[in-house]
Structure formats: structure tokens, C-alpha cells
Design brief:
The protein is α/β, with parallel strands linked by helices. It contains nine helices and 15 strands. The protein folds into two domains: 7-22 and 33-53 and 191-205 and 212-244 and 303-375, D-Amino Acid Oxidase, Chain A, domain 2, CATH 3.30.9.10; 55-182 and 245-300, Rossmann fold, CATH 3.40.50. It is 25% helix and 25% strand. The strands form two sheets. Strands 1, 6, 7, 8, 11, 12, 13, 14 and 15 form a nine-stranded mixed sheet that branches. It starts with 6 loop residues before the first helix and ends in a 5-residue tail after the last helix. The structure holds flavin-adenine dinucleotide (FAD).
């Protein structure tokens, strides 16, 4: 099973025992939360996008290797968590690069993983050139829902080792702090409330004796009781979380790379031998799913994800995770993320599916589930 890879778990709504008990007797109810419902309808769809998350059952690869006279640092395989943790894996990759005395580095890949690795290298004094066959908005990172989901689709629970956990925790903590410092219109990073409508509050999932990887990476959750929220379910769980708007964020990162003297060159590499032709003595490999072909890593598989986007709605300033638990919304949980470029509806993950064609059945499930949720929501 993927770690926190589906539904409510993906959004981190596994409840602790305290929250599961609800409000203690004698505490007065909160004033009802008022929210503008999303105008979810088939007529308001403006696009459907597909992206292939670069997943490895054994988790991301962060390691140094030698290729002739070059130091190669691998930094790929971030699954459904690349937007969340890449500042941290980029910091670790840049620290590994310090082993090479010449402060000139190539980064292969211009998705979020390559861009943040490039910035971390620049902060350590490297001259950086990014080489990539595609740049935003034509990369997986641009197709992301881009919530702060540091463990989503990242590693199979039974593949975790204490060393991998420690590496993850260091990276995720750096990334969580860095994203907080980027909050503002310039980077398209912001805090917002996330609501998970629920018919029942489930007991905590304690199936594993391993440490909770999300500890310290989330704000506290609140259980909203009947009458305190507008959703057509008995309860709603509320938490404050980070949102990233990829179209703003990735452009800003490209601007910063150039501002600090970096260059971005469009170039495809077919074999590792091609890397020998570039001048830089350090190469940081951030090719995501491309590492399967380029470096023969057959453990990499796509988790195909699809987003359907509705006309933007400025009055929607909250995220939702989950539907109304009716038979019309089976499978993995659905998610709504409001952004300047549209109301984004997601919640699909198809393992080892390589086609970039939208899947109509998944589109019906995700859009239909949201139409049902928002049509039954109490208007403010
Ligand atoms: C629908 C969906 C929802 C998601 N939701 C979230 C979320 O809520 N939170 C979250 O954190 N993450 C989420 N993700 C996952 C996240 O988007 C990925 O983990 C992240 O984008 C991976 O970044 P990357 O830089 O490794 O890959 P990419 O963005 O794919 O970048 C790879 C780069 O490498 C280049 N490249 C590849 N091969 C070669 C080659 N041979 N030669 C030259 N260049 C090459 C490409 O051109 C590209 O520039 C989601 C993804 C999808 C699809």
C-alpha cells in the first residue's frame, strides 16, 4: 500500500484519538462556518490536464555516483510529493555537490525538482546551467494539484528504512520551512483552510509501528460538529494548509535561477554518455520519470493523475478533500483546490498508465463527485 497515497489519508486527515472524541460536554458550539460553494457543473469546465507522477515503490533517489570524471547526483522519483518536498531534496543534492571543488554545476530537468535544486546550488555558490528537454508549462510539475502533501504516493510502507525515513524527514522539514517563507503573491504560495467532509470520524490508523512521517509537517485539525459547517455530511475536519499555484511558482523559480546568473538550455539527453559532452563537472539529475529511460531505473512507474479545471471563482477561498461518501464517489478521494487559473478538481492515480489522454470515466467520477458535493452544500 502507498504511504498516505489515497483519499483522505493523502490529505493527512488521519485523526488522533483526541480529535476523534469531538467537543467535550459543556463547550458551546462554534458559529457556523460560511463558505461560498463552488459552481460545479459540466458547462464550467475549461480544461482537463494529465501528468505522470514519477513514483518508485522504494521512494525517491538521492545519491551521488561517478560517471567518468563527473560527479552525478541523482535527485528524482518524488511521486505525488515533488511540489511539497523538493526544496529539501534539492538542499541535500546541493550538499552532496560540495564534494566537488569546482563550483560549476549542471542540473538536468526543469520541473520543480530541478528548479529548486538549482536554487539550492546557487545559494552554495555554484554557477548553474539547467538543461531540459521541456520547461514549464510543459512539465509534470505544471500539471500538479500542488497541495502540501509531503508523503503522497511517495514510498511503499514496507520499503521504508530508518535511513530513508531520516533522509525524508530532513528534506521535508527544510521544504516546509522554505515554502512558508515564500508565502505571497510573487511565488503563488499561500495558506488556506482545507475541509474534509465526513459522515463519521474514524479511529486513528495505527496499523504500523513506524514513526509518523508527517509529524511536525501539519497544523492541528479541528472536528466541526453538525451545524458548524456547510457540508452535506455530519462532520467536517478543518486544517490550515499550504497551497502552491504552479503557473506562478514555477515561473518565479525560473526567474530566480536566471536572476542569480543561471541559464536554462533546452536539450534532451538520450544516454548517460551524452552527459560527458557537457562542460560542468557536477551533474544533478532531476529528470523525474525521464530517469527510467535515461538511467535505466525500471523501478520508476508513472502514477497517472488528471485534473479538470473549472472557471475561476474569486469567492472560493478554501480547499476540500473528499466527497460525500456516497456510491457515486468510490475509489480514491476527490480534491478541490481553488487557484487564480481555475477551480482545480482532482483525485486520480492510475499506476503504470503512460497515456497522456484524459480518462473519461475518471473525469466523470471526479467532476460528478464535486457536483454532488457542492450542489448539496449550504450556501452562505
Ligand atoms: C495530477 C497531479 C497532482 C499532483 N498533486 C501534487 C500535490 O498535491 N502535491 C505535491 O507535492 N505533488 C503533487 N504532484 C506530484 C508533483 O507534481 C511531482 O512530484 C513533481 O512535479 C515531479 O517533479 P520533477 O521535477 O521530478 O518532474 P517534472 O516536472 O516532470 O520535470 C522533469 C524535467 O526533466 C526533463 N527531462 C526528463 N527526461 C529528460 C532527458 N532525457 N533529457 C533532458 N531533460 C529531461 C523534463 O523535460 C523536465 O524538464 C501531483 C502530480 C500530478 C500529475
Amino acid at each position: 500500500m502507498f504511504l498516505a497515497s489515497s483519499g483522505i489519508a493523502a490529505a493527512g486527515f488521519v485523526l488522533g484519538g483526541c480529535a476523534a472524541r469531538g467537543r467535550p460536554a459543556g463547550i458551546p458550539p462554534r458559529a457556523p462556518v460560511r463558505l461560498a460553494p463552488v459552481h460545479a457543473s459540466w458547462e464550467r469546465i475549461i480544461r482537463t490536464t494529465v501528468g505522470l507522477r514519477p513514483h518508485r515503490d522504494g521512494g525517491f533517489v538521492l545519491a551521488a555516483a561517478r560517471l567518468n570524471d563527473k560527479l552525478i547526483i541523482h535527485n528524482y522519483g518524488h511521486g505525488g510529493a515533488g511540489m511539497s518536498i523538493s526544496w529539501g531534496t534539492g538542499a541535500a543534492a546541493a550538499d552532496l555537490a560540495l564534494a566537488q571543488p569546482v563550483r560549476r554545476a549542471a542540473v538536468i530537468g526543469c520541473g520543480v525538482v530541478g528548479l529548486t535544486a538549482a536554487r539550492q546550488l546557487q545559494r552554495r555558490g555554484f554557477d548553474v546551467t539547467i538543461y531540459a528537454m521541456a520547461v514549464p508549462p510543459d512539465v509534470t510539475s505544471s500539471m500538479s494539484l500542488a497541495g502540501f502533501t509531503p508523503t503522497s504516493g511517495l514510498i511503499e510502507v514496507d520499503r521504508r528504512t530508518p535511513e530513508w525515513d531520516a533522509q525524508f524527514s530532513r528534506a521535508a522539514a527544510i521544504a516546509y520551512r522554505q515554502l512558508q517563507l515564500l508565502v505571497g503573491a510573487g511565488y503563488g504560495v499561500s495558506w488556506l483552510h482545507q475541509y474534509a467532509p465526513m459522515q463519521e470520524i474514524r479511529p486513528p490508523q495505527t496499523s504500523s509501528d513506524r514513526p509518523n512521517l508527517e509529524a511536525g509537517l501539519q497544523t492541528e485539525r479541528e472536528v466541526l460538529q453538525p451545524g458548524e459547517h456547510p457540508f452535506p455530511t455530519k462532520f467536517a475536519i478543518r486544517r490550515t494548509t499550504l497551497r502552491i499555484e504552479p503557473s506562478i511558482y514555477l515561473e518565479a523559480l525560473m526567474r530566480d535561477v536566471k536572476l542569480f546568473g543561471g541559464a536554462i538550455v533546452i536539450r534532451k539527453f538520450d544516454t548517460p554518455r551524452d552527459l560527458a559532452a557537457i562542460a560542468e563537472p557536477v551533474v544533478v539529475n532531476c529528470t523525474g520519470l525521464g530517469s527510467r529511460e535515461l538511467f535505466g531505473d525500471t523501478e520508476l512507474v508513472p502514477l497517472k493523475g488528471q485534473l479538470t479545471v473549472l472557471v475561476p471563482q474569486a469567492d472560493v477561498d478554501y480547499q476540500t478533500s473528499g466527497g460525500v461518501n456516497l456510491p457515486s464517489t468510490p475509489g480514491i478521494g476527490i480534491h478541490m483546490m481553488p487557484r487564480g487559473d481555475g477551480i482545480v478538481l482532482g483525485g486520480t492515480s492510475q499506476r503504470d498508465v503512460w497515456t497522456m489522454e484524459p480518462d473519461d470515466a475518471e473525469r466523470k467520477r471526479v467532476v460528478g463527485g464535486h457536483i454532488e458535493l457542492f450542489s448539496r452544500m449550504r450556501a452562505r
